Amino acid sequence: MATSLPPVAIPGQRLGSVASYSAGPGTHVQQSNIYASIAGPVIVDPAQPKTQTKSILRISRVSPGPSQAVAAPSNTSAPTTKSKPRYNTLPAVDSIVLARVTRVQKRQAAVSILVVLDDASAANPDPSKAASDNDNVASILTSAANPENHSNTDELRFQALIRKEDVRAVEKDRVVMDEMFRVGDIVRGSVISLGDQSFYYLTTARNDLGVVMARSEAGNMMFPISWKEMRDPVTGTGEQRKVARPF
Fold first, then answer.
1. Taking every annotated instance into account, which residue ranges of this chain make up the domain Exosome complex component CSL4 C-terminal (predicted)?
2. CATH match for 8-59 among 2.40.50.100, 3.40.50.360, 3.40.50.10310, 3.30.420.360
């Protein structure tokens, strides 16, 4: 009996038979069945009349666009389409992410990815308007910026590194990591590499990337006054950061 394909798969989930589909990226074949190798949306690429006899089944690292076919029940005549959700399932190269700094070392800063944004969300100046049904950026950032919430939950999130050479585009040899980021800062970055199994790699070497939220040593939320400095509105003290350009 024909079975439906899931819209989103998890690693190890059975998707279909090799008699019905060809295995594509993000999948593997075991005992004549196709299984998901990674988590993500299930995509069906229709067969090409001259080159392929079967549709290709693959798992995408990002959410499908409006023109891409997503998994459809195998007993239907044509695949359905699905509009692109506001947030992606997994970070991908060129994804814009919001992350919290968890550790600062001499040559790199470790961050915990909080939200993966799409292009429209990243360009939206009002985080509350960018929230989807599953994610509320404003509440996530407000909670993440609170030192009381810096806990072991970071271990359950995607981890990433910002290397010294990826902090800014100019005077890379003069970068001092302690002056660019502090533990607890919220950073907007772009994924430049999927890295290894432990860490993604991010860059902040653009005007629109860098620290977007930070607390001063006195514990007050600061506001940016230049691309390299933020100020405590209560004490008036300035602190150095690699600041993202405000929208």
1. 90-194
2. 2.40.50.100
Q: How many alpha carbons fall within 13 Å on the CB side of residue 152?
A: 0
Rounded distance between C-alpha atoms, residue 137 and residue 143, angstroms? 10
Please tell me the CATH superfamily of domain 95-122+134-240, with its number. Answer: Nucleic acid-binding proteins (2.40.50.140)
CB 19 within 8 A of CB 33: no
Picking from 136, 121, 64, 108, the residue whose alpha carbon sits closest to that of residue 198 is 108
How is 100-155 classified by DSSP, letter by letter?
EEEEE-SSEEEEEEEEEE-HHHHT-S-GGGG--SS--HHHHHHHHTSGGG-SGGGG
pTM of the predicted protein model: 0.60
Distance (Å, whole) CA 34 – CA 94: 29
What are the residue ranges of CATH 2.40.50.140 in the chain? 95-122+134-240
Using CA atoms, how far apart are residues 102 and 159, in angstroms rounded to an integer? 10
Question: pLDDT higher for 39 or 169?
Answer: 169
d(C-alpha 155, C-alpha 158), whole Å? 8
What per-residue confidence (pLDDT) applies to 38?
Answer: 81
Q: Are 70 and 63 in contact (CB under 8 A)?
A: no
